[in-house]
């Protein structure tokens, strides 16, 4: 009986510690210090490890360019961060930027200037992707108002409930015939070493704490397929994780930490969903 009580006590203490840790992490992630720090780290990551995504982004934004030739209008990017997609966007594109983190605005404008007029940013809206309606007098995104919505590496940072709401918001703001372009890293091949590590770093809250709630164990496609779109086209592609990357005619060495991050986000869901006309 004593041993049973001891076991119960240990389990109770462990549960309390886990709950307290989760609360502390959540509070820390909502602080201004964390948001500012993450904005800077995200900007830095996009310059190095983000290069692994370059071939996939080329495909995504080529499809966006073709779409905009058929349906004129603004493009809305949700979870835009520091503007890591500026160099990939079609020339002269009109952009509405949305991010929940106000601290990305300074970096966003710096990277916009470096893009040399490639993108025309109409406005930056501080809002969550789950509600861009502009309630309580805030600036928002109107119904049926944009030709396309772009989302790259955002849904991985949301809960399942938030993903559902985000997909609903995307459909709300799209014009009839508008498209939702997405690129999201997802869970790898079941029971591979990568799969096990993805589960471990996600469920231990190590990865979400370091990367603003991001998880490596999401399967995102079903949420988009159930979003009520007329058409969903998606494929899974894989990052090539190498010590060096070719950027034009140059070779760039990639440090071990960036290669490790790329290893854990190896499987990438790429595609678009089209709203009924």
Describe it.
InterPro entries: Methyltransf_11 (IPR013216), SAM-dependent_MTases_sf (IPR029063), Thiol_S-MT (IPR052356). Pfam families: Methyltransf_11. Residues 76-182 form the Methyltransferase type domain. This is Methyltransferase type 11 domain-containing protein. By secondary structure, this protein is an alpha/beta fold. The chain contains nine helices and nine strands. The strands form two sheets. A seven-stranded mixed β-sheet has the order 3-2-1-4-5-9-6. Strands 7-8 form a two-stranded antiparallel sheet. Helix 5 links the parallel strand 4 and strand 5 (174-185). The termini are far apart. 36% of the residues are buried.
Poorly predicted runs are: 14-21
Radius of gyration: 20 Å
Order of helices and strands: HHHEEHEEHEHHHEEEHE
Briefly note the structural class of the backbone. alpha/beta
Separation, N- and C-terminal Cα atoms = 68 Å
Give the count of helical stretches.
Answer: 9
Protein name: Methyltransferase type 11 domain-containing protein
Organism: Porites lobata
Pfam families: Methyltransf_11
InterPro entries: Methyltransf_11, SAM-dependent_MTases_sf, Thiol_S-MT
